[in-house]
Amino acid sequence: MNDTIWSYRDAEWSEDRDLVGYEVEADGGTIGKVDAASTDASAQWLVVDTGFWIFGKKRVIPAGVVVGMDHEAKRIVVSMSKDQVKAAPDYDESDWADEDTRTRQRERHGDYYTPYTRG
User: Are the C-beta atoms of residues 47 and 60 closer than 8 Å to each other?
Assistant: First the structure.
């Protein structure tokens, strides 16, 4: 598994920051707002509430897919299109709560998102 997908390109993006509430932008527009964020080393991701456009589903967005962050505007930019985010695996909080299932989910999500990492 590609561990760099689970780390921000710029470590300062998440240092001492609460990213909850930031808008997340993909190619094609806003995909939602950050509902939760992990800042653990090599295990950084955003949980994005996509709202109505994919029926209230949430998506885990690995930090390695993030290509920009504007703290003043509370905006995060990812290297994906809205359709690519829509096609991503669903986020189920219970699957991420247990260490064993979280490891499987990280592998599953990592396999999906790896082609969208840059750098």
Answer: yes
